[in-house]
Specification:
Layout lengths: L5 H14 L18 H14 L3 H4 L6 H14 L1 H12 L7 E10 L8 E2 L7 E9 L5 E8 L4 H19 L7 E4 L6 H10 L2 E4 L14 H11 L2 H4 L6 H24 L16
Parallel strand pairs: 1-5, 5-6
Antiparallel strand pairs: 1-3, 2-3, 3-4
Helix pairs in contact: 1-5, 1-10, 2-4, 5-10
Length: 280
């Protein structure tokens, strides 16, 4: 049984394989071991993402752990996952970028690494923080990995810079967007930065109790929960930043396509349409 429903992973796999650069066999004799199919490796990496298991436990007779790591690094170097995220967000034609929400989320990183530092919420154990920016529905538009002890408001400029670059690539630049933030962003430099970018900030004041439903922040909290459903993100054992970004991009693609299918289920019919709109 696949770890992700076929209705979700099949279009993602097809798009991913189509983005891979053409590879020529340059072996002078052509007698080396045959290359394992990209489809097999991709499915194994999805299993790693969802389950959070190590490469050795996912490997079997069809694909070794060494091949998984080597092919992962090959795809990272080619930048395929970034193009996949752009393609998926373009396919989601209901992005509501005029109403944004952002928040941080800390998860475990027991193996340490470039993004890991002592977590302030887990007794000083190693952790990773994600700076998450979503649209009005909760689609993960930008996800930035950072050190667990980094403060949320210090990561916001990099997150917004990435968002501005993304809007150019999507050819969808919102006019006068609004951004919902919690009290962790209630600092004057944040307000000045938002004003310079032309973004209306809805920031909860420190020391006040405001229901999360009142200002749209709940969608970002829900997105963090969606992302934490992936074992590799919930307990990250990758030590290099590029590897963390690879799995974040793959998780973004899965969450976005799943949301697209859920919305289209009520308005469209197609041959591979799932029986129910609720997909896991």
């Amino acid at each position: 049984m696949p770890v992700v429903p076929a209705s979700i992973i099949d279009p993602i796999r097809s798009e991913f394989l189509a983005l891979l650069p053409h590879r020529e066999d340059t072996h002078p004799l052509g007698c080396h071991n045959p290359r394992i199919a990209d489809t097999v490796v991709f499915d194994k990496l999805v299993e790693v993402l969802v389950s959070g298991m190590g490469y050795e436990r996912v490997a079997d007779g069809t694909c070794s752990a060494t091949t998984l790591r080597r092919r992962r690094d090959e795809w990272i170097e080619a930048g395929v996952i970034g193009h996949l995220v752009i393609a998926v967000l373009r396919a989601y034609d209901r992005l509501e970028l005029e109403d944004l929400a952002a928040d941080g989320c800390i998860t475990k990183a027991p193996s340490g690494g470039e993004c890991a530092r002592r977590s302030p919420v887990d007794r000083g154990k190693q952790g990773i923080k994600r700076s998450q920016l979503t649209d009005a529905y909760g689609i993960p538009v930008v996800t930035i990995p950072a050190k667990a002890n980094a403060r949320d408001h210090t990561l916001l400029p990099q997150t917004l810079d990435t968002f501005e670059t993304l809007t150019w690539e999507l050819e969808h630049r919102p006019q006068n967007p609004a951004l919902s933030l919690d009290a962790g962003y209630d600092y004057q430099p944040v307000r000045v930065d938002l004003a310079e970018r032309g973004i209306t900030g809805r920031i909860t004041q420190r020391g006040t109790t405001v229901p999360i439903q009142t200002d749209g922040r709940w969608v970002c909290e829900r997105t963090n929960a969606w992302m934490n459903n992936f074992g590799k993100l919930r307990r990250c054992t990758e030590r290099r930043r590029v590897c963390v970004q690879f799995y974040l991009g793959l998780a973004t693609a899965i969450v976005t396509v799943r949301s697209l299918i859920r919305k289209a289920w009520h308005t469209h019919r197609w041959d591979t349409r799932p029986r129910k709109p609720r997909l896991r």
